[in-house]
Amino acid sequence: MKKFSWFWVTMCSIIIVIVFVSWQQFGKLSPSADMLTEQEAQKLVQDRYQGEVTLLKLADQRYQIEFLKQNKLYTIKLDARSGKILSFNESTKSTAPTPDSPSIIELPEEELKQIVLNAVKGSLVSFEKVDANQQPSYKAIVKDADNQSTIIVDAVSGAILSISTEINQPPKRLTEKEAVIIATSQVQGEVDEIWLDSQGDQTFYFVKIETSDDRDATVQIHAITGDVIVSWDDHKSNKNDDDD
């Protein structure tokens, strides 16, 4: 009976030693139950700073984290047990443009002008940058002898977005009747004579009017603009002489 008791005491002691040694060898290799997991560390940082974790690794019970926010990269050190932020620094690494801020390369203006002139024949009289449906674009005006065209061209692709054309109307000349109405509104009297004459590249109506007090006036009217010049004769009408 005594031998049997000592046997069990010895076996229990051996088991205790084995368990202790195993814990010493293997227990320390596993993370403590109260240490943050990678998922917990990532969620903590993203919830706190509202960005994207791009890299996360554990070393010496600290998480080394790279964090992207508003196209800027930050380096964060996080205590794996307490969740305390040990450091938060902006990284010097360059970051590629995000989908929300793509890099836009516009074509040179001279190339865009040539695209416009290939689409519409004439002379380019105006070329200015505009915003067409939130796209960087240029508005060009091209004139020839008969038409005026307005073209919108995409500044990035060079695609023609729209073309509108107006026919150039020649200036309208006043009629003889319209000239008489203008003349008699300036000088009250009887129209005695009307004729059309050119001076250089300008054309005028000349309307001769005899007034009720026997004075003569000549009303010069620009045939396009309707501008008026009135001149008076120095002598009275010969009507009195005729009566005599």
From TrEMBL:
InterPro entries: PepSY (IPR025711). It holds the Pfam family PepSY. Keywords: Membrane, Transmembrane, Transmembrane helix. The chain crosses the membrane at residues 6-23. Residues 37-87, 107-162, 174-229 form the PepSY domain. It comes from the Bacteria. This is PepSY domain-containing protein.
